[in-house]
Records
---
Amino acid sequence: MAYPSMLGFQDATSPIMEELLHFHDHAMIIVTLISSFVFYTITMMVITKLTYKSMLDSQEMEMVWTALPALILTMVALPSLRILYLMDELNFPNLTVKAVGHQWYWSYEYTDFEQLNFDSYMIPTQDLTPGQFRLLDTDNRMVVPVNSPIRVMVTADDVLHSWATPSLGIKLDAVPGRLNQTALMTSRPGVFYGQCSEICGANHSFMPIVVESIPLDHFEYWTHSMLNNA
Amino acid sequence: MSIFALVAKQVKTHPSLIPLFIFIGGGGTMGLLYLGRLALKNPDVSWDRKNNPEPWNKIEPNQQYKLFKVNMDYSKLKKDRPDF
């Protein structure tokens, strides 16, 4: 999860996020190489004692500095498009969860087999117990079975919201009157945090998302206990 | 002089313009071709209001409507939704 002074991405929990991390490494290397090369060139040009006042052009150099950026951009674009198409592919989900954004909480509906609906409010700071995270923990978490492809459908009840979990590489706008769909698969069990990512009023910063991924038999036990306690 | 003759004269003295034409022309061509593909083959686009007003209702379950596929095997898909 996120921690203070964090610089990089959170650890990947889904295969798509892993792909995005690798792509970010690839693009970052290219960016670092270009920036250091430009910085070095400018520094050398500024401090050099060699001068040649009759230089007008150099056709060969111009050919290189036209072709090389085009090739570098292609090397960045092709993996990027691959991931883009990968993200849109079907994942044959076993479970569908609906996440509905309200002002200012999320509600989750598991309606494949029984009718399991519950709200997920942020725990107010004064009610936190030791070990809980300020502005991130909620009273009910969206629990999913680990290693299972899941369909998440996101919509909103009133104004725009956005359902985001950086660790899973998901951000999906919750638009009233519209049903957006994404594929989710957690590769490891754990608790993964996210926050509402579309300005939605006074408590926009105080409606976090918590996804908890557990083994399938524990998930069945959880659904039973949630249905019985409702 | 026509624009082509002007450009040909410039290219003779500045051959470094050739990669520029190749990449900019190639990129622009690819963009226009993709736009044409979207206009003609995207199921969200309706040209013929009389005979085919809503092509998005006619997508087959194993039809690949996107340009590329990475991990999908479209031949293995089948329709699991009820007909209207």
---
Amino acid sequence: MMIKSSSIAKILRYCSVFRSIQRFESSTTTSFPPESPASPITQQLPLIVSRQIEYPHIRYPPLQAWLETLGQKRDEKLGLVDLHPSIWQTSPRLDILYENIEWQKTYKKIDWAYTPPHHEYPNMRTKPWPQKGTGRARHKSRFGPQWKGGYKVNGPKGPTSFFYVLPKEKRIEGLCTALTVKLHQNDVHIVDSLDLPTHQPTYLQELAEDRFWGPSILFVDDTDIMPHNIMFATAKTEGFTLMPVYGLNVHSMIKHTTLVLTIRALNKIEKKLLHALHSYDTQKDQPAAPDEP
Amino acid sequence: MSLVLRNILRRCPSAIITQSSLRFWSSNGQFPSHPMDTEEYENQPRKSITELPDELTERGTQPKFISGYETTKDEWEWVDNVLFKSAIPEPPDHPTPSGWFPPNPTLARQWPYFVDRDRFHSYALYVRILPVMLEYWLHEQHRYYLNIFRRRVEYDIYAQRTRRFSLLELISGDIWALDNDLKHYLTKRIELSHDKSKELPVLSQVDEIKRHILVDGEYEEWIADFLKEKGF
């Protein structure tokens, strides 16, 4: 991928250290970041992570975002990352976003309300008082629907589930919309990895405060096995959440103020979403995704 | 069994029945009384009408004649051709004999709007017959409705069939500019064609949230020509 002149100017302006430009091809087979995560940055800067963009868009070129780091408190940008416009530059479908959030809320819902019908009530066949003579209304039993404590005819019966599965296209469009919205509201930060120098939660909290990263942060990595330091720090901090890629959902993205992705997570998300957007799976033939363990 | 006897049996306890000579028409007193839920009944080999009778089937017997065969894994491509593939192939860069045209990016970039293609590389252009709410007011009674697939659908008495709409989706950019250009193009086309069933003005509905344009009338081919001219 060719480097544009505008991006070179940006790099010179913001990077404090200018070394020789190093091209870094990222693919699924190579491991990223390479080595020495805990120590301060020793790689040559700036890193322009030229990712292979699959299914290039006809009209819109790839977007660009800063590559940041959690390894040091000082906000140094390591380089630029390309983002696919089909995912990160959609026309945001707010109605589909709403449907996704509603689905996430209601598909787990079970209504336990139960009113027993008349045959589950005690068999009081006795008339409370005779039909005629007393000045009161005529009744057959003490448990009629008009009585207090009586049965209900068409009341809720048993646990009712509100389970349904939203169509695949709507779920995909919801994720793309949420990502687009987050990016264009400056709430997405792409990070080389989730490796921290210390396990102290104050380090991460102060880092987030300095960079104005919002009260709640969602850290997304590609696997569910996370480094120990970030695990400890997020466990002790309210509002910081760790999540693997397979747990990414619209409600969490909207609930948390900022979204912090690693490069590996970004690769995996883009691959999965693009594969789903550009293939045709009938309900019967849905093969396993190529990358899953 | 007569009704009288049946009523007697209903009221007699089963012990009396087993002891007396009425036993032959009650159950044999063993559990389960009906073969429905027993294992042998459930697991018996089921037979359908289309299956051959037992004498003609060859269950467990060797076939009389086996032709020579050979198992290979060569020429897998002939099998692969037939299998269902979820990956959609890339189309060619030139127009095809079926009338499909590839998009023209240089031409498409100059407009303030962009109409994307769907995953099968075709226009997102559809015909719709939309349902209509039932109106009870007297001044609406001149409208005509049909019930199709349990939906109330508007009927066009001039075209003498249901009212059709053309839907254009996957729009990004300035939708109103596209709407304007589309309406100009369609009015010009209608004037040139001198078709009495197509009436002016061309009515359209723009949905900014769902990013689509709904045009009243069946103008699918003309909208496709419009998109081809723009290079989408």
---
Amino acid sequence: MTSNTIFIVICVAAAATFLTRYPSMALSRYIKVSPRVERGFHYVPIGVFAALVAPAIFYHPTVDGKIEWVYYVAVAVSSLTAWFAKSPLWAMISGVLIIALLRLI
Amino acid sequence: MDGYVSSTITKEIPLRNGFMKAVSDVFPLALSVFTYGLAFGALANNANHFTWLETVSMSLFVFAGAGQFTILSLLQQDATLWTIAISTFLINARYIIYGLSLGRDLGPVHRRHLLWLSYGITDESYSVGTMQARQGKLGLGYMAGACLVVLLAWVSSAAVGYQLGGFITDPARFGLDFAFTAAFLGLLIVMLKHRSHFLAAGLAVIASVAAYQWFGTSGAVFAGAAAAFAVGVYSK
């Protein structure tokens, strides 16, 4: 594959990605919606975060045909940390440390 | 309105204050972006034999994690340009939801600023932006700061990852494969304050897990967002 082809691919992919980003953002301000629908939009982030996390946990691959239980321990530790510390940063740090330590052991 | 907070934009927030607040808010997410970007850079080097310039250019201009990994895979399979364009659009289709949601909160921001702000919309900048909007404090400075930090983390990590190449053969060994999930898990849990939020999250989990099997990440995000949206519309 030549360098020119790769740069054409980059341009096409950049344009395709931009089409998902700008038009909806620009148009959203011209769409008038009822307070109920407006309220619905404020629940969208909860749905998005749940959707980014749930499949990763639910479909986490097995290791040698076995469930990787340390992964689920890390999920529990991260969840508890987030709940009590109210901080995504601590949730991430605690989860990564726990899973790294348990995998080491 | 259970758990609903108006997201009226506050024009008085100084640009610099908003920018600095965004930098500190998005920092933990930028760390997970960095680890992800290292893997992209290494893969572009090892599997696709990109040059350093091509790797950095793709991260700079496309700026879409899952989308870029997909492009690498499609290029290995000699996919056509059309296939790459359509796949990239579909993989990144969740940004349509983000744009619709954030665009409303960024109401008074001038259209020419929206043009470059929209380029920086990612899972991470959307996450912190929407949290800020809930407090009625989302402004141009904040969104610019969030987008810029994530962009810098993504592009620099791809550049470093490319150079490290073969050294990062197993990010899972250091628990880095869990960073992304942990960060978003933290964001989700911090947002759950009312019964209707838990209901929205529960339904979104079920919908996204079901949709993921057939439609991948974007399908899961659409399904999860739709489920939560419905709860929001019908909650009192």
---
Amino acid sequence: MRKEDTVKLISAEGFEFVIDKRAAMVSQTIRNMLTSPGSFAETQLGEVRFPEISTTILEKICQYFYWSLQYASGKETEFHIEPELTLELMMAANYLHT
Amino acid sequence: MHLKRKVPSLVDLCVRTAIDNVRYLGDVGETDLDLLEHILPHCTVDQLMHIENSTVGRDLSPVTDKLWKKFYEKQFGTENANLVMKRMKQNNASFKWVKLYEAKLKDVEEAQNKSLDRIRQLYKKEDARRQSRQVQLCSKVPPNNKRSYWGNGPGYNVSNVKSNLMKKAKIEFLKSQEVRNMAAVKKNAIQRHPCVSPFKSPSGIPSKGSASTSKQVKPSERRF
């Protein structure tokens, strides 16, 4: 993958997830951050920090992004969510408009 | 043609999972009220109570108050609920439905315990009544009149007399001079006629030098 096609998502603990830009854009919030002309530092660096989102949750969110692209392209599978992550994941997803 | 399928949002998926696992929910922390609106209506009374108690430092009543009102109506009837609302209006007071529910539950429980106690008392009474009417085994054996035949102190036979008063009267009668005289005469009469005597006649058994024999020979020699 070329660097231009990826973004870096950084968790509260500092963990860095490098993912496909298309995947990241599943989140409306991230899409706005990356496409808004110049108003966000993120567009320059191609990285977004999430100090309120833990590593486990951010990882799950990235998995969702890829699952979503797969689903949209026709491969409909089940996206399993661990019960103990449910509430936290729900709040993060709400924040990310995803 | 590329068909854009509607992908379920992560929020939706999470809400669905939360509803499926509502029995495991405890402290809902800072979860948005809008999200809770979707999830909490799926709780039972116990589950909702648990969530309310576990979520400390946060008031969930904007979402839960109407849920508790529904629980109240279901459990205690719409009439009672309306009555409670009327009373609150009259007294210009306002209580959360969760508190009203808990209070009513306590009242009902107390009334139930009272009636259970009453029934228990009735059972106890009936039991006691039945016990008192039962035939019970005694440890003492009543004295047997027939056996004390020889046991009378002064030697008078009053075993055929049941009453103590009669016994006393009979003993006194037997002790009296007249009766004793008559008894003595009877005895002498028996001794004069040895053939009538209950003792065995020693003359039928000849034996020399037997002290007992010689003694018993004596009365037979007294012949008139």
